[in-house]
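Milestone 3.1: sequence recovery, worked example.
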């Protein structure tokens, strides 16, 4: 397997996740500036939601990207990288949208978490598969 092709697939998903994290970060900064809050969330619901959307992404995205990188190093097919990357990315976007719309439980938040967990399961199973010579 040509690692270069899988590396290009990984580059796509790492790049998209970095842009997602940047967008979520900018949304936090916008809320902080709007409300004049330098630290914390001052119990402002919209700021709390923005902080948590960014924080939640930073909690889940790194492990997913590590899985993608290790899949490439293990010689995974590009399609495997794309499936894990797409599932994780859609999950994180849907979750962030859901959290931005409501601080409470919502269908987009639940779907986002579910897709994220599915990406973790797919990545984990694929890593175990490629770990066996």
């Amino acid at each position: 397997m040509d690692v270069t092709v899988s590396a290009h697939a990984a580059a796509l998903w790492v790049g998209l996740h970095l842009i997602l994290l940047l967008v979520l970060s900018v949304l936090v900064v916008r809320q902080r500036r709007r409300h004049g809050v330098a630290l914390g969330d001052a119990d402002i619901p919209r700021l709390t939601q923005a902080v948590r959307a960014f924080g939640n992404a930073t909690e889940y995205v790194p492990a997913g990207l590590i899985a993608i990188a290790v899949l490439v190093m293990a010689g995974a097919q590009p399609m495997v990288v794309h499936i894990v990357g797409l599932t994780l990315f859609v999950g994180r976007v849907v979750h962030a949208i859901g959290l931005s719309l409501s601080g409470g439980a919502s269908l987009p938040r639940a779907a986002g978490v579910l897709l994220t967990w599915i990406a973790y399961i797919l990545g984990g199973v694929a890593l175990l598969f490629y770990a066996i010579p």
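The chain has one domain: 3-131. Residues 3-35 form the longest helix (33 residues).
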